[in-house]
Amino acid sequence: MTGPRVLAVEHDVTCPPALFGGWLADAGCAVEVCRPYAGQPLPAVGEHDALLVLGGPMAATDDHPWLAPLRDLVREAAAAEVPTLGICLGHQVCAVAFGGTVERNPRGQQVGLLEVGWTEAAGDDRLLGAVSTPRRAVQWNDDVVTRLPDDAVPLAWTSGGELQAARFAATVWGVQWHPEVDRGVLEVWARGDAERHAAAGIDQAKVLDEIDDARAELEEAWRPLAERFAALAGDR
Fold first, then answer.
1. How far apart are CA 104 and CA 82, in angstroms?
2. Is the dihedral of CA 223, 227, 232, 233 positive or negative?
3. Are 216 and 10 in contact (CB under 8 A)?
4. Would the pTM of this model clear 0.85, i.e. be above it?
5. 11: annotated active-site residue
6. Catalytic residue among 10, 88, 91, 94
7. CA 84 to CA 173: how far, in whole Å?
8. Catalytic residue at 32?
9. What pairing do the DSSP bridges indicate for beta strands 84-87 and 172-175?
10. Based on CB atoms within 10 Å of each CB, which residue in 12, 57, 101, 228 is the most buried?
11. Is 178 part of the annotated catalytic residue set?
């Protein structure tokens, strides 16, 4: 007897399931990674018990050939009540799938540890309710959801007013932060951003050290999110 089957859609080799995939496996899930950028087709929605849409360096509205079919898959998953979680780019893809708007953040790139600003609605949420107490998360993003889809429920905002988490449909959620990353993943991203971070006066070594120092805190904060997602997948 196998556990819940989770499809993880990876957009780029630099953005793997990483810690979140391991936590799902620890919770008894079988995690299958689909890499459409490498030519792998997206499976039909009925082949899995949950859908995890990961981050990536592109924009949610770019013309990569798999993004439009992925938006269709998200809507099909919602119609079939398949638990779906989008992370960063995945969060933005889910927003666009239901009619939301994603744009470059006019306040600039968000990098490092941020407090999660939960809304009152988060406390009763089936997925995020269990973790909706004060905690920090890693953000590393240029784009943000600037207009929520109709009927979407905001679950967290930054102190600057950017959306951090939302429920886009009854079984579809998105988080702008990265619960899945460790220092090894972030060092690759940092190298790609080295020139502009230097120009902006961002001390990458300090940011990475702060995140690394908080690893135990971050695991305690976000492993339960993976466990709750696994439980929703298991309910199917």
1. 30
2. positive
3. no
4. yes
5. no
6. 88
7. 6
8. no
9. parallel
10. 228
11. yes
